[in-house]
Amino acid sequence: MGIICGIYRRDGKNVDIRVSFSMMQELSNYPLDAKDAWQSDQVFLGNCAQYLTLESYQKKTPCFYSTGNYVITADAVLDNREELFNLLDIKDRKLEDITESDLILRTYQKWGEKCPAYLLGDFAFAIWDAQRKEMFCAVDHTGNRTLYYYIAPHIFAFSTLINPLLCLKEIGRKYSEEWICDFLSIPSVIHQLDCELTLYQDILMLPAAHSLTVSSKGFKKRAYWIVERQKELKFKSDGEYEEALRQVFGQAIKCRLRSCRPVGIMLSGGLDSASITCLASNELKKVNQELYAFTAVPMDGFDSTGLPPARIADETRYIEALKENFSNIIFKYCPFPDKHALSDTERFFTVLEQPYKIFENLFWIDGILREAQKSGVRTMLIGGMGNTTISYGSFYQCGLSLYLSLKWFTLFQEIRAFSKVKHKHPLRVAWVLAKSFVPYEVQKFWQKRRNVNWNRPFELSPVNPVFACQMKRNERFKKFCYDPYYQKKYSAFDHRKMMLSPYHLSHLSTVYTKIALSHNMIIRDPTMDKRVIEFCLSVPVEQFIRQGQERSLIRRAMAGILPDEIRLNSVRGLQSADYVQRLRPLEKEIYQEIMNIGELPEEKRYLDLARIHQKGREMNLFGCKARTNPNIRMLLRSIIFSRFLRQQIKRGIAANPQSGV
Fold first, then answer.
1. 653 domain-assigned
2. What is the pLDDT of residue 556?
3. pLDDT < 50: residue spans in the chain
């Protein structure tokens, strides 16, 4: 693992060594284990490596292979090494002596541009094929590693990070105003709708499950895998489905424990991370190793007034249940009393290379990585995609799927059972489900007529309406089938396909790749394993809801492994429920900063200053509803975006000349 970069002069000229040196200097800002570079005439490849496995010590990258004249630089950890070793029929090396780069290059030699489809794991790599005069790049199935690139008729350049690319004189620093419009307009924390866009107009991102081939004659980008419907599994009993889930999920966890350093996990009291913790602990116990578990907890004196009955902020009681059952887990509670949503913004801008919207969580994610680093942890497990894969089970989405697949008797039984669990009349449950069949435009029209707060999601958006109109925001929403009103009703498959779409995945990789690199670590999510995804999409939907219980399959599969206090719990955790309370001592400073927004011409162009200032005057962080007030989040997003613009100006990066600012 690590950071890679490279340049290919498509016009045949030699790469300027001063540019390649500058790119390597940018990589040196990260606390990694080793760096090296290879340069020959029109091609330069660089690598800064993380030594996370025993194999990573075997051979430096970039690696030159005289047979076939290949050079590879790779940011990769492969999870199907043994399978590849056998498929490639390798006789000249032992499995433990072969590196990820070796395996990737051999797959390229055997299968050419189809090779990424044979790889499992987290990877981004580039191969210079000197015989064909082509540069071949690819990223993994779920885009867990970032790969940015710039392409022009005379040059191609790529990097794990954006900043090394800015060393090229060909690359301007003009902002992509489409990206900015998406960032400021989308109510959720997603950055952009077009997964290839970045903050900079000239720099693109290679999407998940895509490869890119570049030569002097042209370039082609192709998707080698997509999320699609799987052939439905037909087992004879529930027990077989449960065993199959344990097997594929356990396999995904076990391969992510391959590390020469301690392994950690970001642990909440929920089904996903707790299930990973139990299975990982059992695997590590077999080899007398420990698992380090880090849990973010609310600040001392947290006021839980106003929390919904089905949500809980402090999940300590569930962590303690794990403590009683697993002796090889080292638990650490992390309250981070001196941190808050506006802490360390300058550092996060530098690390993420862009503004961000996950301010409620980012400080404790970063804090946990810092604590883990002190314990020697280099691999951090998470369960971020669990709600979409292993613990999926939304009643109404599954109910819609049952209806569409003509499993009406099963649907009728589940409506009755669900109504008992939720203490609702069956007709009320059926009525909510029936709304799923109403066309989206009709739902949106009806919502506008009957609900005065129909536009509430947009209260999270600080975008200047004039700028949004110029950028044709609403047309972009339609183009990318984005529903900002959260009115669209999805079937089980369509919801999971949306959650696993490239624009969601690009958001995750941007955050996790870079924040982990800043601590010389890697974040790995077994719930995003390709095998897990395809298995869960092949499971009949009635396995995910059973007797009115949502998320049924994982609950049944983890019986006897996961403590029942967690396994059967229906109260969901609410991380960062104390984010407003942490900010209360800073209310005056926050108010003043809000009132100062608008001093820059960029702020006037991009932000709705009148609304920001009005809501700033109305702001009350001590109010009982402040935590759920969307205007508080909107104001914090505005502050963070404003701070980012000011940092850019300090660094000498101006706004877009064509915008007149």
1. yes
2. 97
3. 657-661
26 and 152 co-located in one domain: yes
Domain that holds residue 651: 579-659
Helix (H) or strand (E) holding 271: helix 271-285
* 237 within a domain of the structure (yes/no): no
Same domain, 546 and 594: no
> What 3-state class would DSSP assign to 179?
helix
pLDDT of 658 = 46
pLDDT digits (tens, 9 = 90+) for 488-536: 889 999 999 999 998 888 888 899 999 999 999 999 999 999 999 999 9
Same domain, 272 and 127: no
Q: Domain holding 513: CATH number?
A: 3.40.50.620
- Identify the pLDDT of residue 659: 46
Q: Are residues 528 and 639 in the same domain?
A: no
Q: What is the CA radius of gyration of the chain?
A: 25
- The pLDDT score that the predictor gives to residue 442 is 77
Q: Domain holding 109: CATH number? A: 3.60.20.10
The 3-state DSSP class for residue 461 equals: coil
Whether 198 is covered by a domain: the verdict is: no
Q: Which two tokens stand for residue 572?
A: 């969901």
Q: Are 213 and 318 in the same domain? A: no
Neighbours of 299 (CB within 10 A): 16
Instruction: Concatenate the DSSP letters of all residues of 537-594 into one string.
Output: HHS-GGGTSBTTBTTHHHHHHTTTTS-HHHHT--PEE-TTTTHHHHHGGGHHHHHHHH
Write b or e for each residue in 411-450: b if 16 or more Cβ atoms lie within 10 A of its Cβ, otherwise e. bebbbebbbeeeeeeeeebeeebeebeeeeeebbeeeeee
Question: Does residue 446 belong to any structural domain of this protein?
Answer: no
As a residue count, the chain comes to 661
pLDDT reported for residue 660? 41
- Residue 240 and residue 225: Cα distance in Å, rounded? 28
Q: How many domains does the chain have?
A: 3
Q: Say yes or no: 79 and 116 in one domain.
A: yes
Q: Under the phi-then-psi rule, with left for phi > 0, alpha for psi from -120 to 50, and beta for the rest, what region is 89?
A: left
Q: Are 77 and 53 in contact (CB under 8 A)?
A: yes
Judge if 547 and 623 occupy the same domain.
Answer: no
Q: How many CA atoms lie within 13 A of 238 on its CB side?
A: 15
pLDDT in tens, 561-611: 999 999 999 888 888 899 999 999 999 999 999 999 999 999 999 999 999
Secondary structure (3-state) at 202: coil
CB atoms within 10 A of CB 528: 26
Residue 142 parent element (H or E): none
Locate all alpha helices (DSSP H) within 17-64, ordered by sequence.
Answer: 17-27
Look at residue 285 in the predicted model and tell me its pLDDT: 96
Q: Which of 532, 555, 573 corresponds to the end of one domain?
A: 573
Domain boundary among 542, 573, 604: 573
Whether 277 contacts 329, CB under 8 Å: yes
Same-domain check for residues 517 and 647: no
